[in-house]
Amino acid sequence: MSNIAGKSYAMNVITPMRWYMTWINKLIFWIAQKFPSTLRGLVTLSLIHYARWVIIGRNQLPHLDKRQPKEDLHYSYMLFFSNFNGSWEQYVDSFTFSIPRGLDLFWKWNIRYPHSVPLTPFHKYIQYNQIETNHYYNATPLASSNDVKSAKKLKAALIEFDRKFNTAVPDQFLDQYNALLRNLQGDLGDMRPTPIVSMAAAAVSKRRFEDEKKLHQPNVNI
Amino acid sequence: MSNVSNNAYALTVLSPIKNDHIGELSYGDIVRNKLIEWDVDEGSPMAKVPQTYLARYFILDDVFSEALAGGDFWGTSYDILAFFSDKFRRRALPKIDQLKSRYLVFSSNFHGDLEIYLRGMWAVMQKEIKEVWGYCYAFDHVHDADTFIAYIKKCQLNAALFFVGSTDDSLEEQLKSLYLKQEFSKFAVEHQGLPAMELQKAYQAFIRRVEPTNLAGPSWKPGQSTLCK
Known about the structure:
Helix content of chain B: 25-40%
Structural class of chain B: alpha+beta
Order of helices and strands of chain B: EEEEHEHHEHHEHH
Number of strands of chain B: 7
Low-confidence stretches of chain A: none
Mean pLDDT of chain B: 92
Mean pLDDT of chain A: 88
Oligomer: heterodimer
Distance between the termini of chain B: 41 Å
Number of domains of chain B: 2
Structural class of chain A: alpha+beta
Radius of gyration of chain A: 23 Å
Low-confidence stretches of chain B: none
Number of helices of chain B: 7
Number of strands of chain A: 5
């Protein structure tokens, strides 16, 4: 099991909500999607790659076959999937500190939601309702979300610089090269494999090390 | 419903797993074991699927109910009515939900169109798809890309809100940008303080090597987890 792939952590949270209150959540999400300025607080959490909320009505779980027993649920459920950088605590706490009211607005109608402040009951609520990931894949495990965004800016600036100054006279080239570096100073910096930020990441790292060791071990007949 | 945010797509799939077992292992546990055994990073089957940014699989065994006294809308009236019948007291308690099937949950964030994505997925990881979805209800009707797409659409749930905190560029674009960031950062550090002409020459050689506008040229690989490859 691993919730971690490189610098990303996969969080899965499923929480029950009263079926007759789902429309309020759907309306709030609809407003948030239509008016992105309402998500400004979320944007400040630059550690998020992608996140989504899915509301499953109590009769909406896929039923595909006559042999499949029909679900008989009292509650509807809200699924929350997030891909973020850093540790679980960093993420949950930064949500609480940055957008406590937004968080409460999204989860307020979920059963037993304790509110985002104080922290300990909120931690317990997420832990109780979180499900472990069995396989997690990240196309850019060496990069954080901020790396991806800064790389996009760097690529555009480098191509533009190259188009204009690749064959400029050396002095002009140097001036513009220095200007390019000044402009990109917040976006430069090399990337390395992820540091170990949790027990789960340590376990993955240990397993991979053991797999590698087995690969390079000569066959020994006992 | 908002599965789409500009060029990024949020796919959420819940496929019911058959209530059966082989020996002491339920189908749900067999699928979980297979998922855990998949290689990770560049070795993951998902690394072959074009345009996948991030993807996850897990088994939803059941839903959760915290067994504390209820604070429902009707709670107070139930408390009063409990004088007359005990059934009202029981109604004030939280309900316990229990799923009748386990579900294979697949969630992916990718660039582009859903059908093209699923077609690409079927083309490159058919073996692994059959290995895990083969234990799910109605998957026996799946035998090619078209029937796989139809099956996944039946299992798909729409997102109520999809938030993109990264970029929605194609994966090739993202990987090339990261490669350039890595290489140019190194170049900048290694060539500090050089005379203009020498720096320009080195820069021109650097550009010829990294080919910034060529996505098919030198770049990072999907899922690349080390820098020596």
